[in-house]
Design brief:
It is a single chain. This protein is mainly alpha-helical. It has a single domain, classed as P-loop containing nucleotide triphosphate hydrolases (Rossmann fold, 3-Layer(aba) Sandwich), CATH 3.40.50. It has 6 helices and 2 strands. Strands 1-2 form a two-stranded parallel sheet. Helix 4 packs parallel to helix 5 and helix 5 packs across helix 6.
Length: 170
C-alpha cells in the first residue's frame, strides 16, 4: 500500500468504518481493554481452564509458538471473576526473583508486605493459606514463566507446598 494514499485510523469516516465492519469486534476498544477479539473457541478455552482450576490443585502450563495468543489468554483469565478464585497476573521477566513475585502478588491482593528480608516468602504463604480458607483459591498467573531461572521456579513450587502443608491443598 502506498503510504501517500493511506490514512491514519482516526481520519477514516464513521460511514467507512461501518461499511467495512471495522466498528465492531475485534476492532473496537471495549471498556479500556483494547480491541480484544472474542469468539466461541476463545470462550471455550477460558471456560475449560476455569473448570480445571476449580476442580484441581494441579499446575496448569500453557505452551505454544510465539504469537498464538498465550499471553492474551492468560490476561483474559486474570481479568475474569469467578466465585472461589482470585487471579493474580504477573508478567515474568529475566532476573525476577521469588521475593519480587511475592511482593507483587501481595500488592495486587492489597496486602501490605513486610520490610526487606527473607520473611516475605513465609508471610506470602501464610496470607495465601488464610485467603484460601476465607475466600477460595488464589491463582498465580505467571506469564512468560520460561524466563525465570530454575531456582526461582523451585522456590515457587516450595511455596506452593508450604501452603498445602497448612492443611489446604495449593
Amino acid at each position: 500500500m502506498d503510504s501517500n494514499n493511506s490514512y491514519p485510523l482516526e481520519q477514516i469516516s464513521t460511514k467507512a468504518l461501518v461499511e467495512f465492519g471495522l466498528n465492531r469486534q475485534p476492532f473496537i476498544d471495549r471498556n479500556g481493554l483494547g480491541a480484544l477479539f472474542e469468539d466461541s473457541a476463545l470462550s471455550t478455552q477460558i471456560n475449560v481452564m476455569i473448570n480445571m482450576l476449580h476442580g484441581s490443585d494441579k499446575i496448569l502450563l500453557i505452551t505454544g509458538e510465539e504469537g498464538v495468543g498465550k499471553t492474551s489468554l492468560l490476561y483474559r483469565i486474570g481479568k475474569t471473576s469467578h466465585d472461589g478464585l482470585f487471579f493474580c497476573y504477573i508478567k515474568a521477566v529475566e532476573g525476577l526473583t521469588v521475593d519480587e513475585i511475592c511482593r507483587e502478588a501481595l500488592k495486587k491482593m492489597e496486602i501490605v508486605a513486610p520490610g526487606i528480608g527473607n520473611e516475605i516468602k513465609d508471610f506470602f504463604a501464610s496470607k495465601i493459606a488464610a485467603k484460601r480458607k476465607m475466600d477460595g483459591k488464589t491463582i498465580l498467573i505467571l506469564d512468560n514463566a520460561d524466563k525465570l531461572d530454575s531456582y526461582t521456579l523451585d522456590q515457587l513450587l516450595l511455596l506452593r507446598n508450604i501452603v498445602s502443608e497448612d492443611g489446604i491443598s495449593a
